[in-house]
């Protein structure tokens, strides 16, 4: 028993140290990254499932670390949130995305929209300076309708931080609200009405096994019907196969997003229309 305990101790401690050290390094490197502008934005098309047209895209941040290469936002967004750096990072993403949508509205489609992920942390103290966001929009000649803000269910349950007031400011400016990862959080359906959401994004975990798991198909159907009843549009995330796309389209899902259509990529690679083989 003693040697077993010792083994466990030996196995445990170094990895704890490793994790803590790795985290410290990441925090430090993230500060450097902000100063040295190592970030970029990739865009992924949000495709109209009836027509194949692309009039919306999601902005997804990328970090090219000088040594580690591309670091996933899943790894650094949580650290940016814990350290408060997300506020500055989020401001940068918003400003870049608005510049990009201004260009696409001129060159591609006058109603193009870019969807921007906004962390719940950005709604806390000293978070988003909404007046400066709106000023940036008008400086770029983009109406609020050019932007969608992607929030998660948890934010809507936050009774503090004047979340509903801040969302109201966005709405009044014409900025649309999109509820990300729908179905994974503790959602209360009453929030959908109360907060005047425009889009529901069905989480990719419900899309993944759509063709094999009847429960997932049933859930997608219910979400789509409910959303439409409330006047919301639906985006399915993580669409990877034509079979998934066809099932979702047949269920009345409005938009699809996923590797089937395009991976997130630099703005110059945006496909503006995609073939919808097998439909219509
Ligand atoms: P998310 O908002 O749910 O974004 C969708 C994620 O799914 C993206 O991962 C995207 O690349 C990935 N994806 C798209 N299509 C497919 C598909 O067909 N199959 C699979 N397996 N995955 C697909 P990514 O870019 O690594 O971003 C991860 C998360 O990081 C995002 O999840 C979002 O929560 C966060 N994030 C990314 N950019 C930002 C940002 O600018 N601000 C904030 N606050 N969070 C961000
Ligand atoms: Ca998102
Ligand atoms: Ca999502
Ligand atoms: Ca997410």
TrEMBL record:
Residues 23-278 form the EAL domain. This is GGDEF domain-containing protein. It comes from Rhodoferax koreensis. The chain holds residues 526 to 805 of 807 of the full protein.
């Amino acid at each position: 028993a003693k040697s077993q305990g010792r083994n466990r101790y030996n196995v445990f401690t170094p990895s704890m140290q490793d994790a803590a050290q790795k985290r410290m390094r990441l925090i430090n490197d993230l500060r450097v990254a902000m100063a040295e502008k190592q970030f970029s934005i990739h865009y992924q098309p949000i495709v109209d499932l009836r027509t194949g047209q692309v009039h919306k895209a999601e902005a997804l941040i990328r970090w090219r670390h000088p040594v580690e290469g591309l670091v996933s936002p899943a790894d650094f967004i949580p650290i940016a949130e814990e350290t408060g750096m997300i506020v500055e990072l989020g401001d940068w993403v918003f400003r870049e995305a608005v510049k990009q949508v201004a260009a696409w509205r001129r060159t591609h489609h006058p109603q193009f929209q870019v969807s921007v992920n906004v962390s719940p942390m950005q709604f806390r103290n000293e978070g988003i300076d909404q007046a400066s966001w709106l000023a940036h929009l008008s400086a770029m000649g983009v109406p609020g309708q050019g932007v969608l803000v992607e929030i998660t269910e948890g934010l809507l349950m936050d009774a503090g931080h004047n979340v509903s007031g801040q969302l109201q400011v966005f709405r009044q400016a014409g900025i649309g609200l999109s509820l990300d990862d729908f179905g994974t959080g503790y959602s209360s359906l009453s929030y959908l009405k109360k907060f005047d959401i425009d889009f529901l994004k069905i989480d990719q975990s419900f899309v993944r096994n759509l063709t094999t798991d009847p429960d997932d198909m049933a859930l997608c159907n219910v979400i789509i019907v409910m959303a439409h009843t409330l006047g919301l549009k639906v985006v399915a995330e993580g669409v990877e196969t034509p079979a998934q796309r066809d099932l979702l389209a047949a269920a009345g899902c409005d938009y699809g997003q996923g590797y089937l259509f395009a991976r997130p990529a630099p703005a110059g690679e945006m496909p503006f229309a995609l073939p919808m083989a097998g439909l219509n």
